[in-house]
Every structure is written in structure tokens, then in C-alpha cells.
Amino acid sequence: MQRLDPAKRQEILDAAARLFAARPFHEVRLDDVAAEARIGKGTIYLYFEDKEGLYLSLIREGMSRLVNAVEAQMENPCADVWDRLAAAVEGLIGFASRFPDLFRVMRSGALTADDPELQRSRRELSGLIERAIRDGNEAGQTADPWPELTTQFVLSFVRGAVLYPPEGLTAATLRHHLMVVLRRGIAKEASA
Amino acid sequence: MQRLDPAKRQEILDAAARLFAARPFHEVRLDDVAAEARIGKGTIYLYFEDKEGLYLSLIREGMSRLVNAVEAQMENPCADVWDRLAAAVEGLIGFASRFPDLFRVMRSGALTADDPELQRSRRELSGLIERAIRDGNEAGQTADPWPELTTQFVLSFVRGAVLYPPEGLTAATLRHHLMVVLRRGIAKEASA
Amino acid sequence: MQRLDPAKRQEILDAAARLFAARPFHEVRLDDVAAEARIGKGTIYLYFEDKEGLYLSLIREGMSRLVNAVEAQMENPCADVWDRLAAAVEGLIGFASRFPDLFRVMRSGALTADDPELQRSRRELSGLIERAIRDGNEAGQTADPWPELTTQFVLSFVRGAVLYPPEGLTAATLRHHLMVVLRRGIAKEASA
Amino acid sequence: MQRLDPAKRQEILDAAARLFAARPFHEVRLDDVAAEARIGKGTIYLYFEDKEGLYLSLIREGMSRLVNAVEAQMENPCADVWDRLAAAVEGLIGFASRFPDLFRVMRSGALTADDPELQRSRRELSGLIERAIRDGNEAGQTADPWPELTTQFVLSFVRGAVLYPPEGLTAATLRHHLMVVLRRGIAKEASA
DNA sequence: TATGAATGAGATTTCATTCAT
DNA sequence: AATGAATGAAATCTCATTCAT
């Protein structure tokens, strides 16, 4: 699956992202994907196992890129806890605005329940945020008895805000409000 | 479409909830639904327009029940803001634990983007929580510049916890933790 | 696979026999089978797994009927060796003329190499003829050092004569000539 | 279509023989043939019209070689009838053991019913054996009322033995047994 | 000449929906 | 009202064939 033209492979993935973002899986025809990518229908099968394989590749590679993006934003591990959390949020929101279709598909969560590679990515992403909180707990900056829960909250929040954005919400406001609530919510001394 | 045996109709919905919770829409066959509900396949068409109609009914009625549950919990409008928010959270979590399959389907968000009735329900649910926060703002108990976002936060928190529950999380713990974070996050005093 | 209407199942098999007899497997479309059987295309899948399953069922059941036909012809086990062999040949030729399409498909031998049920039937059919020859050997009527080989010869001969019949050949002549050659070929005292 | 490298053409035919011997026509992909012959898929089309053309060439040329082989064995026309028949049998069995795959494909009889060139070859092959028997009849060595059927018998005998060989059968035994049965079956004296 | 990526016609198969019972 | 056999439109997928390199 590494032969052939990687650029064309990516074009197919891009086309698929646009279509899967706009319609649920079963309403996207491979004919449409081929037309959107301006290739023949059979060509898809040179690059992907089948329709589900294409969908999974899209999500897997998107998830992997998202993890990398968040990791890159948080890269300075010595940084302050709040900086690291802000970086994580920035990474998530930045990814969502740079690849809105892909993010939409990834977050719709269909078909992906039990793919091991995806579960690994999900745990990796959660791990990045959890670790920041745990470090904060140890450093005495935060006092969060349920870091996993807070992590899910951050991820769900960004998801919700990006998929169903309230009227007039900017990325900056979203980021700011999330950080405010988060800071107040789990800081050691309730911000006092 | 509303006559016939309401109990049988509900059995079909229950069966559908179980299956749609476990698999994406296009992997659930009406044959499966009929078998799960122990009725003939044709019977589904006596109670529902078609497959999508069944799915929409499931979500619509679930959403409507959820709104009612939350509303019932919050019914005393004069109550303290925190009591009202706690009641809302109680309503959400209670519903999610009583109807886990249904909640899972409702929160997966597939196929439901543009149904007007659903949008109304969603706004109604959000409205209940938003109104409590706005009342809190006016009463000087809370100081939240973005009630809609905070509402989204509450819903996301429950969603994340229910769909991807951390090991060993109980409903009581979830409720408690959410209320702690919420209180710290938007209480007036906290920003004093 | 035993539910549904067995008569309709047989009609599908009959239609398939006609088409598979006239064209090789890959040139027979399920559309054609459905049209020939005057049913909808999907109905085939109610009665058979898939195209190959239909083909296999056709051959398996044909083979089973052929074995029964030959067995029935030979049913008197005390009979003279030559009578039994003549009966076997009669059974083969009779089956071939009663079900020419089916026989043609069965003998074309495509796709059937490694089906266990078919191998069993084939062995059973061979066994009937072999046993007659071995009994003949023991009774001192025949002296055939290779009963299996002779059995294959009988089967191949009938196959060849039926699939590629020489100009002007009648079933009676075929039967007569085969028996003459066979009798002379393996009788104990070379007919002396 | 006859230029290009004859050795490569033969390699393709050999690869095709191996594959067509193991699987029915429609299960052999040109991809497989190309891989087996270690050439590019497009190259096949330089040497053959299309897939069916390749298959027909394989059988035609195999049949032609078989006829030549049998002809060569029988080349002394003045020889004794039994010697000529033994030579024919020797030619058939020798060919079958030297080219088992090719023989298997040729004898499976798929797709070749109405090719004129093949029919000519078939008649030629039959003719060689028939002529020997007719000469034997005229010379008073044999007394066979149905030389065509006897020819069919010889061909069937070899076919059956090669396609479904009994345990432990050698070419020599096969040849010997066939000649014994044949001699008894149609010798003049035998009917005296 | 040789290749194998690309193609798309056309095959198999699925499954929501219908309807005779 | 209830059923499930029957249907066929429409989907996925295959693979012989082409053609730019």
C-alpha cells in the first residue's frame, strides 16, 4: 500500500474527507469520491482495500496528524501547566480550523469504535492532556482528582464547540473561555 | 402513524436503540431490528415511515424525554442557582444511566444535523441550563460572560464521561466533580 | 436453506442447469438465471448463498441423483456381473438422456475439484462399478487387475460419447458397443 | 502477432497452462498469469489478442503438438495394426506425462466447443487412431464395427486415467492394461 | 518492446421496501 | 394488524483492457 503515487493517494483522502464531512458514511458513494478526486472508480481500489478501508485510513491518518499537532504545540515539557494545557487546546482548535472537514469526520465517531490503531491514537492524545494535569497535581499547581474525566471534558468541549458553534463565537473566545473555566475549575487554591 | 399498539411501537424503538448504539446506522439492517424486537419485518412499516423515520423517531422521542426529565428535575424555578444546575446535571446523568443505549445513539449525532424538531429540542435543553446561569448572573450568584459556552461545557462533560467513561467512575462521582468544577468556574465570588 | 418454496428452488436449479449447460460459468449472469427462472434477481439469494453456491448445489444434487439412479438400476446385488455392469451403464446413459443439461454441467467439471461432498459422491459412483468388477473377479467371471482404471474408463467413455456424440450414434448402440468391449476386455477367459 | 520473442511467448503459455490447470478459466486473472510468467501484464497483450485468445492459443497449440506427437510415434504406416495402436497410445500417454498441466487444460474441455481449428485437430487425432483400426479391419486383424467409438474409448481411457489416476498407477501399467483390453476388445480372433 | 497504473463497463450482491396472504 | 417471501434499484467491487511512459 506504499507503492503508487502518494500525492494521488492524498488527493483521494482529501476528496473523501470533503464528502464524509458533508454526508454520513452510507450516503457517500464511491462514484462520488472518484468524481470528487477526478479519478476512475477503480483507482480507489489501488490505494485502499475497500470503502471502509478508505474511511479508516482517513480517520487513522487524521488522528495521527492531530496527535502530532498537539504534541508539537506542547513540546516544551518544562513549561508551566497552564501553558501546556493552553498549548493543547491551541493544538486542537488549530487543527480543527486548518482541517475542518477532516476534523468533522474524525469527531463524528462512526465506524471507529474498535480499531486498535485508533484506540492507541486516542489514548495517546488523552495521555498528553492527562499528563499535563497530573504533572500539575504533582507540582501543586492543580488539584484534580479525575484527570481522565477533565481530559474527556476538554476533548468533548472542543468537539462540541467546533461541530455546533454558538452564534458569533471566535476561536480566540472559545480558547479563552475554556481556559478560564479550566483554570478556575482545577487550580489548587481556587484561584485565590 | 400514531394508532396501533403503543407497547409494540416502543418495543421496536427499544430494539432499535440497542442496535443503533452498537453499530453505525448503515450496519443496522431492518431485518436485525425486526429480529431483535421479535416481530416481522413488515410490521416496522406499520409503525414507522421508513428506516430513517425509525431512527429519527428514536432520537426525537429520546430527546423529548431527556428535556422532560431535566425540566422535571429543575421544576422549582425559584430555587437557588446551584440547586437548579445540580438538578439539571442530575437530570442528564440520570437519563444517561437509565437509558444508556438511547443516550449513546442521541449523542453520536449521526444523521440528525438538520431536523427542525430536533433543533428545537436541543435549543430547549440548552435553554434550561442557560436560563439558570443567566438568572444566576442577574442574581449576582454567578458571573459568566458566555452562558451558551458554559452550557455546551456541561453537556460535553456528561457526553464525554458517558461515552468514554474512565475506569471506576460512578454517577455520583461524576455529578460531584462536574458541580465542583462548574461552581469554581463561574461563581461570582471566584472572580472577586 | 430448507425454508421457502422447494418447488421454486428447483425451478431456479432447472434454469441454472439450462444456462450453465450452454455457456461456461463466467458467461452466465445471475440476471440471466433470474430471467430464465422468471423471478427477481434477489430471490436467488434467498435460496442460495451466492453464484458459486448455486452452481455447487446444482452439481451436488445432480451427482446425488445420478448415484441414486445408478444404484437403483443395479439394485439386485445377486445379479450376474455383466447384468450389473450393463445396469450401471444403463443408469448412466439413462440419466444423461433424461437430464442432458444437468449431465453436461456435471461432466464439464469446472469449479468442483475440491468439494468434499462431491468427492464423496464421485467415490460412491465409482464404488458401485468397482464393486461389481471386484465381485466378478472373485466369482471368477472377470479377471481385471485394475478395476479402478476400468471404472474410470466406463465413466469417461459415457461422458465423451454423450458430450461429443459421433454422428448417428444411438444410445442403444453406445450401450451395446461399450458392453461388448468391456466384456471382451475383462472377462476371465478371453470370451473363449 | 507471431513476431516478438518466441521464447517469451512460450513462457507465457507455460505459465497459463499451470494456472488454467489448477483453476477454472474465470478464476485465473491475467495478473496471475503475468506474475507467474514474471512479466508485466501489458506484455501479454503484445503476444495475444486477449484472455480468451491466450486460452485458445494454449489449447490449439497443445492439441497441435499432441497430434504431431502421436503422428510421429505412428509414423511407419506399414507397421502392424497393434504396433500402430500401441504407438498411438504411447504418444498420448507420453504427451500426458510430459505436459501434465497442458493435458489437463486440454481435456477439461471448457470454452473450446466450437473453435474450428480445434475441431480440425480433434478430428485429425481421432482420424489417426480410426485409420489404424480401419486398416486393421481391412487387413483382417481386427473386427470392429464402430471404429469411431473405439477411438473415443482409447481417448477416454487415457483421459480418465490421467485426470483421476488410481493410486499407484504408472504410465507403463496404464499402457499395458489399455492395450490388453483393446486387443481383446476388437481383435478378429476374439470374435471367431 | 515492456510496463503497470489507470480505467470503467459490467458483474455480483445487498437490503429497504412492497404486498399477497 | 402481522408477516416474511419477493423484488429490483442501487450499491460495492472486479478485472480485462488500455496507454502514457
Class computed from helices, strands and strand pairing of chain A: mainly alpha
Helix percentage of chain A: over 70%
The low-confidence parts of chain A are none
Query: Most extensive interface: pair and counts?
Result: A-B, 37 and 34 residues
CATH level 1 class label of the largest domain in chain A: Mainly Alpha
CATH topology of the largest domain in chain A: Tetracycline Repressor, domain 2
Largest sheet of chain A: none
Helix-strand pattern of chain A: HHHHHHHHH
Q: Gyration radius of chain A, to the nearest Å?
A: 19 Å
Coarse morphology of chain A: elongated
**Mean pLDDT across all residues of chain A, rounded?**
91
Percentage beta strand of chain A: under 5%
Count all strands of chain A and give the number. Answer: 0
Number of H- or I-type helical stretches of chain A: 9
Overall number of domains of chain A: 2
First and last CA, distance of chain A? 56 Å
CATH superfamily of the largest domain in chain A: Tetracycline Repressor, domain 2
- What is the CATH architecture assignment of the largest domain in chain A? Orthogonal Bundle
Oligomer: homotetramer
Descriptive account of the structure:
The structure is a homotetramer of 192-residue chains. The first copy, chain A, has 192 residues and is mostly helical. Chain A folds into two domains: 1-48, Arc Repressor Mutant, subunit A (Orthogonal Bundle), CATH 1.10.10.60; 59-191, Tetracycline Repressor, domain 2. Helix content of chain A is 72%, strand content 0%. Chain A has nine helices and no strands. In chain A, helix 4 packs across helix 6 (100-108), helix 4 runs parallel beside helix 7 (116-139) and helix 5 runs antiparallel to helix 7. In chain A, 38% of the residues are buried. Chains in contact: A-B, C-D. Chain A binds chain B through residues 24-26, 108-111, 145-146, 148-150, 152-153, 155-157, 159-161, 163-164, 166, 169, 173-174, 177-178, 180-182, 184-187, 190-191, and chain B through 24-26, 108-111, 145-146, 148-150, 152-153, 155-157, 159-161, 164, 166-167, 169, 173-174, 177, 180-182, 184-186, 190. Chain A binds a DNA duplex (21 and 21 nucleotides) through helix 2 and helix 3.
